[in-house]
Design goal:
74 residues, elongated
Length: 74
């Protein structure tokens, strides 16, 4: 029982001692047409910005170029 408890504690220490992977923030995001950012989300190789102009802009994380524009219907 003691060995089992020690194994569980060791696994918890190993699991939680590594730092979680955090997305890299871009240096600057250039939004078109004087848009202002309302929200940002990250994915693998991309990030998206929701603007105050009811649009979602999806950027390539490497180049910073817009890859998709999605209009949000009211």
């Amino acid at each position: 029982m003691i060995v089992g408890l020690l194994a569980i504690v060791a696994l918890l220490v190993i699991r939680f001692s590594s730092a979680p992977e955090v997305p890299r923030l871009p240096e600057a995001v250039v939004l078109p047409d004087d848009a202002k950012a309302k929200a940002v989300t990250f994915g693998t190789g991309w990030y998206a910005v929701v603007t105050d102009q009811d649009e979602i802009l999806v950027f390539d994380a490497g180049s910073g170029e817009i890859t998709q524009r999605v209009k949000i219907a009211p």
